[in-house]
Amino acid sequence: MALGDSTAVGVGARTGGGYPDRLVVKLRAAYPALKLLNLGQSGATSSDVLDSQVPRALRTRPRLITLGIGINDVGLQISDDAFAVNLEEIVVQLRKLGVPMAIANIPDLALAPAIARLVPRSIYERRIELFNEHITASAARHRLTLIDLFAWSRENLSGRRELFSPDGFHPSALGYDVWAQRMLPQVISLLRETVAASA
């Protein structure tokens, strides 16, 4: 089960969906019965996840949860403290489901071509870092698997125009493929845990 924003939906890619759909494709050979419930919504903020996605999630029985949220909070100038409160409540509620959970931090989208033209990189990057500190803290507090997209993006996004869609902000189909591949090892590890626990 995936919760999140436009990157869960796949905005920017003409086909193939976002990273959750691509993760399932990559996992299909090893887990042929795997199904995806994607609750992601384009434009979602942390408050949107809390208000509309979490209640739906709590009515399900997933084997694994992924959560990726925060970049719209950054862009809409929502305070990092408000984000932290929302994120904590999201995680507390989802942990009631008693299944492994992976949370991705926010990539360094200060490197996105559309952002580079509008905002000084240092300002946008610092806001992302503040939000990621809260994500890291929540992951540690609740023993979530943290997928570090920020560090990966700093090493791999600069100058890689092909990883972005024509809007210069959302990933391209290739960008989503690379994103899913970055998440794959940790997701496989969590799925193995769920299989072992149910054996």
Q: Which parts are unreliable, with pLDDT below 50 for 5 consecutive residues or more?
A: none
Gross morphology: globular
| Largest sheet entry | 4 strands, parallel
Order of helix and strand elements from N to C terminus = EHHHEHHEHHEHH
Global mean pLDDT: 95
Instruction: Specify the number of helices.
Output: 9
Query: How helix-rich are the residues, as a percent range?
Result: 40-55%
What's the gyration radius in Å?
A: 16 Å
Ends: how far apart? 21 Å
Strand order of the largest sheet: 1-2-3-4
Structure description:
- The chain is built from 9 helices and 4 strands.
- It is of the alpha/beta class.
- Strands 1-2-3-4 form a 4-stranded parallel sheet, sandwiched between helices.
- It is globular.
